[in-house]
Specification:
eight-stranded antiparallel beta sheet; elongated
Amino acid sequence: MRTLAGCAMLALVLVTGPLPLMGAAMQLGAPGVRAGVVTPDGVLQEDWGALSLRLEGGTPIEAWDYQVWPGPTARGKSALGAVTLEQSAFHAPIWPSGVDVLAARLANAGTAPASVRLVLDLPAGGSAGEETVAVGGRTVVNLPGGMQPVRKEREWGCTGGVVPMPGWGHPAVPCDPAFANISAGMGGVPIIYRFRVPAHSRKAIALGFCESHHSASGQRPLVIRVEGAPEREIDPIATWGRDRPGVLIFDAFDADGDGRVQVGIYPKPGAPDLNPILNVIWVFPPGRAPDPGALASGALSTTAERYVDVGGANDRLLYEGGPLTYDLTLAPGESRDLAVLAATAGGSVAAPGGWWTTARLWRAAQDVWTGWLGNETPTDVDPALVNLAMCVQQVDGFSFLPEGDPLPAIALLDRAGLYREAERLIRIYWDKPAPEALAAQAQRADGTWNRPAAQVLRALAGHALRSRDWEWAGRAWPAMRSGVPHVGAGGADARESAVALLGVAEVARELGQPEAENISKLAARFDPQARWMAP
């Protein structure tokens, strides 16, 4: 689960050295974003649950390697005979809330074809559809494209990936109780049901809709594809009105002879609302044409061969639960790449497909980190610096750390030459007005802070003298000058007070401020032997 534990440890890390990278949880993220965590045994943990990929019967990964540049990445490798499974996990900061990416490459280094079973362990309570997995009303996983898992099917059910929403509907007239419930394909996920039938047989299938969110037509038009019947487009508001139950009847046919009839509700491309909905399904023998009004009233529901209260009590998934398994055969020398996309805290994944390939996701991850470091490519990046970048949050243009002491973090940024980031984090100590959420850290009207003045002044002076940004120093100078009379109060010792005042005096000289000499003399009163030393 996502926590701020790593941020709470940051002050200790800044004092004791780099983060431990082996045998510990590996944090993924981007500047300002702490996303998922990869455990030492390769399980990706998110706020909605856990996800992992493995070769059935393969050797366990002894240890995952954690690299912080060019972005926090966890890597692991396992094998089964001549077949290897290499995995990497990283965070891609794409709109709107980013995704964690579990990328994998299967490779056969042998001289003969090799058959393996790849297992994707899903989160508890996850509903796996054809392309996505939903948990608690969120679409949280995009499954690997171009691969079909081996799954056991029930006699009928929903293929999954949708969100049941009982009580969502508010029909304005007496009707079948199923019109009060829906399933929704959040993010454009289609709603798909399959029903077992004799091969090449026909059925009469009726679908019920009741739109209780939109008032105007054109907001949520739906495309309906029932196997063996012509495709239809329907706008529930335009056809029946808001909160008005409506029924459509289709002559379904098992066209492909697989012993299943498929019913699909899809969003109309380009519609304002791309989340399809469905309330109820009835299945009748072929040739029977039930009256739509009688169906909507609920009078015929008990006579149907199959009655599905979609999103309600008798709804169910088509597939049996458990992990997803993929049976693959690799030719000698063949490799195959795949990727699983996982939603990060509070977010959802977009519908599968589109522009974002694994390579582009990786490029997005690299770009945001090189941008944070000033578009440079350093040869050695301090892991504590990367952890700090993920911890820093913002409110109303002010940066802050939700846990830990920001002053050592400011010093770390200044020593790394990341003056822009240091300036954002130090802003709360001199700029006004401060956001209400950060008011406790800001300078008070009398020039004091909620911590010893010497500590804050040393940080302000240190930033000015390292960055040589005298325009910034001029803007921060009134806060420094107001804090000088309070040095020595609040628990600071004489040496600490003297060092802070010497730094402030040096800034005053650079700015041509007349107080410079008096501040130097005040420093000597605290400790005549002290010398300026940047934090």
